[in-house]
Design goal:
With about 425 residues, this protein is an alpha+beta fold. It folds into four domains: about 1-90, Rossmann fold, CATH 3.40.50; about 120-175, 2-Layer Sandwich (Dna Ligase, domain 1); about 180-310, D-amino Acid Aminotransferase, Chain A, domain 1 (2-Layer Sandwich); about 320-405, Phosphoribosylglycinamide synthetase, C-terminal domain (Glycinamide Ribonucleotide Synthetase, Chain A, domain 4, Alpha-Beta Complex), CATH 3.90.600. It is about 30% helix and about 25% strand. It has 14 helices and 22 strands. The chain has helices at about 10-20, 35-40, 50-60, 70-75, 80-85, 100, 105-115, 125-135, 160-170, 230-250, 285-290, 295-305, 375-385, 405, and strands at about 1-5, 25-30, 45, 65-70, 90, 120-125, 140-145, 155, 175, 185-190, 195, 200-205, 205-210, 210-215, 220-225, 255-265, 270-275, 320-325, 345-350, 350-355, 360, 365-375. It has a five-stranded parallel sheet with strand order 3-2-1-4-5, sandwiched between helices. α7 packs across α10 (about 230-250). It is globular, with a radius of gyration of 20 Å. It starts with a strand and ends in a 9-residue tail after the last helix. The mean pLDDT is about 95. The chain binds adenosine monophosphate (AMP) and glycine. Glycine binds near residues 218 and 283. It is an enzyme of class 6 (ligase).
Length: about 425
């Protein structure tokens, strides 16, 4: 099987590594890839990932048996539709179904129709509407840009003026009730009807230790979660995943690909914070490091409507930790072009290799150190050991990824 992977971040690097481990995968072509992916994949090509025609054309040209679309923007742009129109199986939802991520307002409508537990919310387009919504819920205030914002469109603050300012800046926002409780990312592989959950993971959105500072795309992750009630995944599949998929089918926009369910575990049970239409980054790096089932076969089954017949997933009996190394100034204004050394064995999130052969930073999140261990302590130690060899001037990373879980300080308020 020849697989074309679209994207070039840390998630796509992890997907390429996973696909290359599948004995049924004969070639992985990555576009546009990255210096890290160039070493892992069979071949790298350049493409405008936001152009459905260009991606579909490339899929035909490289004789892909399967296309896997990593990031959300091409999905929202309709890349999966164009690939399927050429008769090539594609792992990723249609442009209409990707609105589950592309519009917070659309996602809320689907959740309401499907009776999925989530925060109460108002969609607001004027300062007066925003002010009324903020005062309905009180602090802490949660204000979300309605459109795609690469994980940075959300402001959670006790400062009413800051909440109003974010609303004014975004134009159209969703303002919602604050959900209190530890967060879980659950990835569900689906062909639109059947659905298979991966191991639950947790990511760390804030830039600084102790969950301080602004939101980022994600500063680290670990899996599985030792602190969740044993029936959590089953419960979320029954109350969130299946009702959502059914609602999407009934609306005529069936969702296939990866449904990313972001949850808060509140006293009243798990509630949805967000849906994404693709694998999460950096959780994917941790989750796929534990998957023993061949990845290509799983994604192909989902892309061809054959997931019901797929064997049960096999996982390593281990834990996995990912620590992100971000550039100076991230997330406000990431500095790029810094020289990187010692990146062997790391996943590349935002790097480039210049003509002189030097590896340089090329994005906010630069590298990911992913490691496994028999417990969280061992996995953490191994990930930070890997990171200790890297030099990136001004680089920032959190020192407390998975630490609270390792120390038993994460408690589910719901059983
Ligand atoms: P989102 O892009 O919707 O995932 O939001 C980014 C982050 O903001 C989440 O991971 C949460 O940490 C936080 N957040 C979003 N919505 C809420 C909410 N209703 N209550 C509490 N925190 C939230
Ligand atoms: N880790 C958060 C995301 O991928 O959106």
């Amino acid at each position: 099987m020849r697989v074309l992977v679209i994207g070039g971040g840390g998630r796509e690097h992890a997907l390429v590594l996973g696909l290359m481990r599948d004995p049924a995968v004969t070639a992985v072509i990555a576009a546009p890839g990255s210096p890290g992916i160039a070493e892992a994949a069979t071949e790298q090509r350049d493409v405008d990932i936001l152009s459905p025609d260009a991606v579909a054309g490339l899929a035909v040209e490289v004789e892909a048996d399967l296309v896997v679309v990593g990031p959300e923007a091409p999905l929202v742009a309709g890349v999966a539709d164009a690939v399927r129109a050429k008769g090539i199986p594609c792992f990723g939802p249609s442009g209409s179904a990707a609105r589950l991520e592309g519009s917070k307002d659309f996602a809320k409508q689907v959740m309401t129709a499907a009776k999925v537990p989530t925060a109460r919310a108002f969609t607001c387009s004027t300062p007066a509407e925003a002010a009324r919504a903020l005062d309905t819920f009180g602090a802490p205030y949660v204000v979300k840009n309605d459109g795609l914002a690469a994980g940075k469109g959300v402001v959670v603050t006790d400062d009413r003026a800051a909440a109003l300012a974010h609303a004014a800046e975004c134009g159209r926002v969703v303002i919602e009730e604050y959900l209190d409780g530890p967060e879980v990312s659950l990835f569900v592989v689906t062909d639109g009807v059947s659905a298979v959950p991966l191991l639950p993971a947790q990511d760390f959105k804030r830039i600084f230790d102790g969950d301080e500072g602004p939101n980022t795309g994600g500063m680290g992750a670990y899996a599985p979660l030792p602190w969740t009630p044993p029936n959590l995944v089953e419960h979320v599949m029954a109350t969130v995943a299946h009702p959502t998929l059914q609602q999407m089918r009934e609306a005529g926009t069936p969702f296939s690909g990866l449904l990313y369910i972001g949850l808060a575990i509140t006293v009243g049970g798990p509630k949805v914070i967000e849906f994404n239409a693709r694998f999460g980054d950096p959780e994917t790096q941790s989750v796929l490091a534990l998957l023993d089932t061949p990845l290509g076969g799983l994604l192909y089954a989902a892309a061809t409507g054959e997931l019901a017949g797929h064997p049960e997933l096999q996982w390593k009996d281990a834990f996995s930790v990912t620590v992100v190394l971000a550039s100076a100034g991230y997330p406000a204004s990431a500095r790029t072009g810094d020289e990187i050394t010692g990146a062997d064995g790391l996943i590349h999130a935002g790097t480039r290799r210049d003509a002189d052969g030097v590896l340089r930073s090329a994005g906010g999140r630069v590298l990911c150190a992913t490691a496994t261990g028999h417990d969280l302590h061992a996995a953490r130690a191994a990930a930070y050991e890997l990171l200790s060899h890297v030099d990136l001037p001004g680089g920032q990373y959190r020192t407390d990824i998975a630490l609270a879980a390792e120390e038993g300080r994460v408690v589910s308020p719901w059983r």
